[in-house]
Amino acid sequence: MDDTILKITGLTKRYGAKTALDNVSFEVKKGRIYGFIGENGAGKTTTIRAITGLSSIEQGSVELFGKSDKAGLIHARRKMGCLVEHPILELHKSAKENLKSQQLLYGNKDGSRIEKLLERVGLGDVKNKKVGDFSLGMKQRLGIAMALINSPELLILDEPVNGLDPMGMVEVRELLLSLCRDDGITIVISSHILTELYQLATDYIMISHGRILSTLTKDELDSFCTTHVILETESNGRALEALKAGGIGPADLDENSIRIFGNAGTKDVAKLMYEKGILVTHLAKHERTLEEYYMELLGRGA
Ligand code: ATP
Which terminus of the chain is more solvent-facing, meaning fewer CB atoms within 10 Å of its CB: N or C? Predict the structure, then answer.
């Protein structure tokens, strides 16, 4: 069964002479959390506005829950909730009253849904408090509750942790992880900081200057960040020979360490050294940081 719920194909958008999106294509599959990563001005909000219907599509297509025609998209968008940057809240009203107003937009009056949602986002205890007195993190969680009011299958959040303190970030992260894990909601979340989304996303869509640089899973990202294995032994000369004969590598000697490239992991290397009776004094994976990998991608894209 194809579990693609959102498919963007060849999206191009210009503002006068400025190309904000250049042939953007990617897919979103059910039950996953996508980190949509790009520097300021990369095109994240423009893409999200096209998906949510807040801006028109000049070229390319958006297919949501299998629908890409105008009428079908309007219907499909009812299965989607979104929060673009900070939520629009009525500060003099309570969290509960804000949710009630949002629910009315969908023509719904189910009070129990509001109570459940407030508990779900951890605002049950403060539901009757004035929103103007809330911290930024609480306001963002209320914004997420508002995006969830119509029980969406897909949640799209544009920079939801912007400006949050570390505690606020953790609260939002825990909430989003649980919405995906426990409620099966697919999430697309944009940010300009890869490390911020590393603990949250299962997949990454990287955009820069309006172009998609890379789409990859967390496992792929991890493997790209592992560049080589470092080995130190009592006899590096013998170890190099053993690696060559064992088809592991390529490998080279860097001062007192051997650098082993290719697909071999530390386990393969340790096993081979053990079999050849070579004493290993150090064995580790060398990893690029996420920032290094991302900057490299940006460099290549430019
Ligand atoms: P940020 O993280 O700063 O929000 P972003 O990745 O969301 O950045 P967009 O807001 O999508 O980036 O902007 C993409 C490009 O399009 C930028 O160069 C921006 O200046 C330009 N742009 C966006 N909206 C408009 C507009 N209404 N008029 C003119 N140019 C625009």
Answer: N
